Amino acid sequence: MRRAFFDLFSGAGGFALGFEMAGFEGVLGVDNDRSAIRSYAANHRKAIALAEDISKLSSKTLERLGGSPDIVIGSPPCEPYTAANPKREKDPLDRLYKDPVGRLVLHFIRIVGDLKPKVFVMENVKGLIDGPLKKALREEFARVGYDKIYFNVLRAEDYCVPSHRVRVFVSNIPIKPKKCRKVITVEEAFKDLPEPNFEWPPNHEPPNVSKKLWRRIAKLRWGSALIHYRGSGGKLYPNMIRLHPKKLAPTVLGSSRFIHPYENRLLTVREQARLMSYPDNFIFIGGRDSQYNQVGESVPPKLAEAIANVVREAL
């Protein structure tokens, strides 16, 4: 029997892809980003792809569309919680209760409480459990009927993903997936990709750069960044990094742009998708910036599959 799942704040559907790879059936994906939900529909053809604001959706509407799922997964927006956001609220509790985007986590909890799935898994940045937030989340889930909550902090690179990524997966079961036996390097991730082109694979068109930018890129060494930006507390974060071919890639964010390790150009969307373990037949729809964002804001499918395998065993 195939177990059904709903995917809230689905984005393009990397989290859902991992669950499908593990044998689960996605019946409903919801996101208010219209380009991302078009990508979801293109890649998860058997599921209902709903372009809606979850804060305005009732659980009864979701049940009417997709029935009662065994599992609910989802990735509420991380911007209110990430240290890379210089405008995040100083008080951690304000990120959950005051910030309107941060409050979307509470809507995930609301829907989980109404649907009562056997298992739920909610992904976010580790900042989601800063300070008093962990206690607040325990109380919110207990209020809707889930007294036992686990905060599973996982590294994507431990599960065959060729880029560094630390995320917390909040769930009602412990999640300790079997780890990958080796670290996959940038060079290994790109090894069989053709030169950028407009044919195959999809989303592999070469981004244009000005001559001035090209000259700056040409001077970059492996691991060096072209620009830095300030996050919360004034901390500097690098962007436009020249990837080291023999190492793991840095964290892929929605705003990330990387320089090819050997060529003086930006990575294509397909190359960044490879760094997140997406298969080449996964299509990203929308403008190029939106495509990069869909890749960087997703759960890497290989990591999602490892989590889904644990969920399957628990069920």
TrEMBL record:
Molecular function per GO: DNA (cytosine-5-)-methyltransferase activity; DNA binding
Enzyme class: transferase
Any Pfam family: DNA_methylase
One GO BP: negative regulation of gene expression via chromosomal CpG island methylation
EC number: 2.1.1.37
InterPro entries noted in UniProt: C5-Methyltransferase (IPR050390), C5_MeTfrase (IPR001525), SAM-dependent_MTases_sf (IPR029063)
Domain of life per record: Archaea
Keyword field contains Protein biosynthesis: no
Entry-linked PROSITE patterns: SAM_MT_C5
Gene3D superfamilies: DNA Methylase, subunit A, domain 2, Vaccinia Virus protein VP39
Keyword line: Methyltransferase, S-adenosyl-L-methionine, Transferase
Record bears the keyword Methyltransferase: yes
PANTHER family in the record: CYTOSINE-SPECIFIC METHYLTRANSFERASE (PTHR10629), DNA (CYTOSINE-5)-METHYLTRANSFERASE 1 (PTHR10629:SF52)
NCBIfam families, alphabetized: dcm
The family this protein is said to belong to: Belongs to the class I-like SAM-binding methyltransferase superfamily. C5-methyltransferase family.
Name of the protein described by the UniProt record: DNA (cytosine-5-)-methyltransferase
Organism this protein belongs to: Ignicoccus pacificus DSM 13166
